[in-house]
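Hi U.,

Before I forget, here's the chain from the pilot set. I'm dumping it here mostly so it's searchable later in email.
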Amino acid sequence: MKLELIDYVIIGLYFLFVIGIGVMLKKRIKTGNDFLLSNRKIPLWITSLAFISANLGAQEVIGMAASGAKYGLYTVHYYWLGAVLAMIFLGVFMMPFYYGSKARSVPEYLKLRFDEKTRTFNALTFAVMTIFSSGISLYALAMLMQIILKWNFDVSIWVAAGIVLAYIYLGGLTSAVYNEVLQFFLIVLGIAPLVYIGMVKVGGWHGILQNVDNAKLHVWKGMGSAATNPMGVDAFSMVFGLGFVLAFGYWCTDFLVVQRAMISRNLNEARRTPVIASIPKIAMPVIVILPGIILLALQSKFTGFELPHNANGDIDYNMTLPLLLSKLYPSGILGVGITALIASFMSGMAGNVTAFNTIWTFDIYQAHIQKNASEKHYLNVGRITTVAGILLSILTAYVARGFNSIMDLLQLVFSFVNAPLFATFFLGMFWKRTTSNGAFWGLISGTVAAALTQGITTAEGKGGWIGNIHHYYSGTSQAFNIAGISFIVCFIIVTILVSMFTKRKPDEKLVGLVYSLTPKEKDKAKVLYKNPLSLGLVVLLITVILNIIFFLKNKMNKLFDLPHIAAKALSKV
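Structure:
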C-alpha cells in the first residue's frame, strides 16, 4: 500500500479538524455536567447520528467486514435480528424511564430502582467493559497505522491514543458527539465507493454467486444445527443468544449508546433518537458486511487478495477492509478511505472513553469518595479519568492482538456484562416485585455463570481455563451461548427466586421507574416521524420484510441474477 502526498494531506487535515473541535468547545465546558453530559442541549439530528456513529467504531467497520469474510451473510443477523429491534424497543419503552428519572447514567438508574450496591457493581463491570471496547478500537487504529504509515505498532498505539485524548480532554462529551457526526459521514463516504468498485470488479451479484462458497450466501439455511452453517450457531442460540440477550442487552443498557439519547433536549427527542438511528442501521450491512463477501469473491477470481496471518498463526480476518482499500483505491480516494477507517476507530474509542469517565466520576467517585464537591472539582476528576481511561485502553489493546476477529472478542465481553444487566433491567422495569437483593445477586450470579461457562468450554483455542467439557464450532457460537446461560441464571434462577423471599420497595417509591406504576403519556405528535411508536412500527415492518426476503434466498438468487441472464440473452440477438 503506497500513499501519495494528497493522501497524507487528507489524513492530516482530519486530525487537525477533530482536535480543532475540541479546542473550540473548551470555552463552553465550565462544569462537570457540561463535560460529562453536554447539559442536555444537543439537537435531535445530532443525537441520532451520534447514536449510530458511537457504535460505528472498529467493532463494526472492521469487525463486521471481518465477520462477513469469516461467516458470510449470516452476519446480517447482528442488524436485522438484533440491533434494529433493540433500538426500537429502547426508544419506545425504555427511554421514558431513563430520561424521566433524570438519571445521569445507567448505573444511576439502577440506584433509583434498586439500591447503591447494585449500582456500584454495574458501574465497575461496565467500566471494565468500556475499557476493553476502547482498547479494541485503539488496537485496530494502531494496526492500520502500522500497515499504512509503516509505523512501529507500539508507536502507533501511543500516537492514536494521544489524538483521541486531546479532543476528549478539551471538549468532553460534546466534542466526542460532534466528532461522531463528522465521522459518520466520513465512514459512509469513505467506504461506500469501495463496495461499488469491488462489486464491479467481481462482476456484480452474479460474480458473488459464482465465486463465493454457497454456504456463506445464506442467512437462515443450516440453522437447525451448529454443525451445518459457517457461523457454527444453531437457530436457538442465534435468536435467543444474539437476537434477544446480546442485542437488547447492548442497545438497551450499554451507557455508550444510551448516553447519546439521554443528552437530548426533551423526552420526545430522546425516544426518537434510537428509532431514527435504526433507519440507516437497516442499510448498514451493505457498507460494513458486504466488503467481506466481496473479498471472498476476489480471492476466487484473482491473486493478491489473500489475508495475512496473525501472531497465533490464524487467518487475520480483521485485515479484510484494510486489504481491500489498499488493492482497490487509487491515490486521493485511498486517503479518504483510510481517513474513514481512522474516523471509525476514533469514534469507537472516544465513545467508550466518554462513557467510562461519566460512570467513574458520577457512579463511583461522587457516590463513594467525594459526595459534595464543587462542579469544578468534578470537571477536573472527569478530565483525570479521561487520561486514566486512555492509559488503560492502551493495555487492553495488546489483549485484542491475540484474537483473529475482534467481533468475537467483543461479543464475549458483552456476554459477561450486558447479558445479566439486561435481565436485571427487564425484570426491574416490568415486574414491580423485583427486589434490590434479587437484582444485586442476580447480576453477580449472571456474571459468575458467564465466567464459569467460558472456563469449561472452548472455541478456536480460547476459553477452557478450568477444563474442556464442550467445544463450540466458533467464538461467536461460544459468546451467544454464554450470553444465554448468563441471562437465564440471572433472570430465572437467581433474581426471581431471591425476589420472592426478600422485601421489595413500596409502590410509591417506584413511580416513574416501573412500567405498571408509571402514568402513561400518549405522544400527541400526529406526524409519523415525530411519533416514536408509529415510526418504530414502520422500521420494524421493513426489517421483517427483509428477513422474509432472505429467508427465501434460494428463490431470490434468481431475481438477483436477472440482469446477468438478460445480458446473455441480448448478446445472442
